[in-house]
Amino acid sequence: MKLHPAVSAVTERIRERSAPQRTAYLQRLDEAANRGRGADRMGCANVAHAFAGLPANDKFKVVAEKAPNIGIVNAYNDMLSAHVPLGRYPDLIKDEARKHGATAQVAGGVPAMCDGVTQGTPSMELSLFSRDVIAMATAVSLSHDMFDAALMLGICDKIVPGLLIGALHFGHLPTVFVPGGPMPSGLSNSEKAKVRELAAQGKVGRPELLDAEQRAYHSPGTCTFYGTANSNQMLMEAMGLHVPGTAFVNPGNELRDELTRESVRTVLGIVKAKRFAPIGRLVDERAIVNAMSALLATGGSTNHLIHWVAVARSAGITIDWDDFAQLSAVVPLLARVYPNGSADVNQFQAAGGPGFVIRELLDAGLMHEDVLTVREGGIREFTRIPALTPTLSQGEREQVISWHDIGPSRATDIVRPAAEPFSATGGLKLLTGNLGRSVIKVSAVPDDRHVIEAPARVFDAQEELLRAFNAGEMEHDLVCVVRWQGPQANGMPELHKLTPPLAVLQGRGFRVALVTDGRMSGASGKVPAAIHVSPEAAVGGPLAKLRDGDIVRVDAVAGTLEALVPPQEWAARDNAAMPDTLKTANGLGLGRDLFAAFRRNALIAEEGACTWL
User: Would the pTM of this model clear 0.90, i.e. be above it?
Assistant: First the structure.
């Protein structure tokens, strides 16, 4: 299929604007790749320290036999349900490596926090910056420089982007990402949301709410809604960085373990075949565009309009929200997974999953097919689904992975072909106007709510909004503006705790919207929310000019975000100052003191909120 002209044009613009940085990046990559092996190049004391903890036979393999040595970077902890399975992966990986004459070492661990635990608390102000901490920890892990390849073990919100950013700074290494899969379905996401709204209205108490939440989040594995964690997995498939079809296989079964072993065979296949496919070559402008198309086609997490800008920068590639907007105009919405539908990711997988979406996008010319992936068969391999097949090997019965065509959609209310999409355009849109540049997730918002025009109620913190709701002060049409929530103000926390009260107001018939320079959850849903407003209020952005009662128009049809204030009056207004009480509160306690340099140096959201540039 010929590439769609708009996809081709966006890719070419990215290539042209990125040329100087990308050229310099690839030069550094080649210089690193052309050095000798670490065990041969480094001093004897260095080598001895590096392998002192290995079993004697492994030590002999890597030093004397020059066997490939795989570095494992692991985001395991047992606070995150999604990461619990990763605790046993290193032993599987080491065992499989030995079977193929190689060795593996846990190069290091990276921190991994759960936004589900920290939502609505001061700790959430560390969440976005944890991505860059993870990237740095990945770099520290790989800095021992004794590895021929790497495996990245991680799944959730900031963890995969952080691992990917860190891996791209060691772009000369063949690298495969290893996920753990979603937990089995529990209480449905829609039922959970109903209980949350009832709790926001005081109609059920804490025991009922806690029971619902525990029935929804009940076992190891990722949460089953299509938020940032599961969007990560979709994008890893679309970029060809997984073993094909790995994303949404549940943990704790034989297929899951075999897919983890296959990640070892895959990365060793690159090394042993001397196929020059390091991650820095795989992640080029075409792979980035493929990820963007997959995100738009599935109505994925808004957080990736920040994260993938940062990922691209790490590979010497510059993208912006205009690129997303131009792709969104031609990429159709092919999936309805909660919150932009009722299905969870297990049902999405059963209906066809990532492989179905990738196939449809490739066949429609909306993804690049001529890309490198971790597999020699290219991105088409990622349109197939894995299964275990019984076989006989040297008289022994065993199970091996085979991949099969997905076929047509098994549930057209969950995934549809590109010729019959849910919507002709993607699930995310760019808004621009005198309030700045912003993004909005429209895939879950009812059509009659795509344009909201109402008086503004301006809040300086999410707690103020919740108090006003509980006091009954918001029983009318309004645009809720929550400012001082950007990267430099307080680390840009998600404001997901605002979803239930705003959904209640919308359910009562009021026309409501949220406008903020903060983030919403990657699972933000049916209430229109213009988020990531850039530049943020703390650096002089126009949200600091807004006053209570100003009429604000959030228009996802025309793509505008406007304060309907006479231009002369608007130009003459002074910006409000961030309250001193907020400045103090945002900087102290629960570890926030340590992140002062991150807040001070963070770029705007559209530039990836990067702290290292």
Answer: yes
316-336 residues labelled b (16+ CB within 10 A) or e (exposed): bbbbbbebbbbbbebbbbbbb
Residue ranges, CATH 3.50.30.80, the chain = 428-607
**pLDDT tens-digit series, residues 431-448:** 999 999 999 988 888 899
Task: Please give, one letter per residue, the 3-state secondary structure of 277-345.
Answer: CCHHHHCCHHHHHHHHHHHHHCCCCCCHHHHHHHHHHHCCCCCCHHHHHHHHCCCCECECECCCCCECH
Which of 357, 224, 228 lies closest to 294 in space, CA to CA?
357
**For the chain, percent helix, then strand, then coil, each to nearest 5?**
45, 15, 40
Q: Are 242 and 153 in contact (CB under 8 A)?
A: no
CATH code of the region 428-607: 3.50.30.80
Q: Retrieve residue 248's tokens.
A: 């949404």
Segment among 90-99, 147-156, 320-329, 523-532 with least mean pLDDT: 523-532
- Give the pLDDT confidence score for residue 523 in this predicted structure: 62
Return the half-sphere exposure (C-beta side, CA atoms, 13 A cut-off) of residue 495: 33
The pLDDT of residue 524 is: 65
- Condensed to tens digits (0 to 9), the pLDDT of residues 511-567 reads 999 999 999 876 667 899 999 999 999 999 999 999 999 999 999 999 999 999 999
- Side-chain half-sphere CA neighbours of 66 within 13 A: 7
Torsion of CA 530, 534, 540, 544, to 10 degrees: 0
